[in-house]
Write a structure and sequence with these properties.
single chain; alpha+beta; 3-stranded antiparallel sheet; 3 strands; 2 domains; 40% helix
């Protein structure tokens, strides 16, 4: 993990086209501003993990549905 120190209004650049700027520091919280191409998806970690869980769940459900279709065709 890379750890950087930034002050308010300072930023960092990722991959030459994503800028993350420290917008505010308040009561133990950091507000970040992110500038990135529209093609780049940006999610909070907990939302990203939930999306991943839902995707895994839907894959399992699709596999179960495919198995059920195979079973139904046999009869």
């Amino acid at each position: 993990m890379l750890i950087l120190t930034r002050k308010k209004d300072e930023s960092l650049i990722i991959n030459g086209n994503i800028e993350i700027q420290v917008v505010a520091l308040d009561d133990g919280k950091v507000k970040l501003g992110i500038s990135a191409p529209k093609s780049v998806e940006i999610h909070r970690k907990e939302i990203f993990e939930k999306i991943q869980e839902e995707n895994k769940s839907s894959i399992i459900q699709k596999k179960n549905l495919d198995e059920l279709k195979k079973y139904m065709k046999k009869e």
